[in-house]
Amino acid sequence: MFKSMKNIDTAFRYIRLVSLAVILGLSVVTCVAIYKGYEYSGAAQDRLYVLINGKALEAYASDRKENIPVEVRDHVQMFHQYFFTLSPDESNIKENITKALYLADGSAKRMYDDLTEKNYYGNLISGNVSQTIRVDSIQLKLDDYPYSFRCFAKQEITRPTSTVIRNLITEGFVRNVARSSNNPHGFLIERWTTLENRDINVKSR
């Protein structure tokens, strides 16, 4: 009988030891899983997937300061593309100018109003003239805020009888604003002025 009780006691100790080992092992596994979960969650917050042409491409989040030169240049380029890319179609002109005016302050609106008063857009439509722009370079000064820029570009104005290439130089300042669907970079062009806009080549068609 004593031998039987001794065996039961030994078995109970063995079961208790195994149970403690299992509990300890599960606790370690749980702690590691929780730690890895937080680690993965933190890493996942730095990842962004962009859908382009039906394919998900991974992008990485970074400090806005690191991207300021790239974003400012793209903002300035987008503004000039919208403002100066025109076709002999009233709705197209209004659509592009509207997009451009979301990216700049009243200085761009004043230039648009001046061109409208001079019937510039009306002459484009009646003369079947189209206009495109190619931005060659954008110089930035980021030491002071608001940031200043100077844009160097070429305009191509296509008329029924000729094609004119114009040299365009503009400058202005850029400040931060809230991002939106109409202003994805979150910048606003201020005090925008044209320094040069002259013909450099004329070709007959």
From TrEMBL:
- The superkingdom of the source organism is Bacteria
Q: What is this protein called?
A: Conjugative transposon protein TraK
Q: Which organism is it from?
A: Chitinophaga barathri
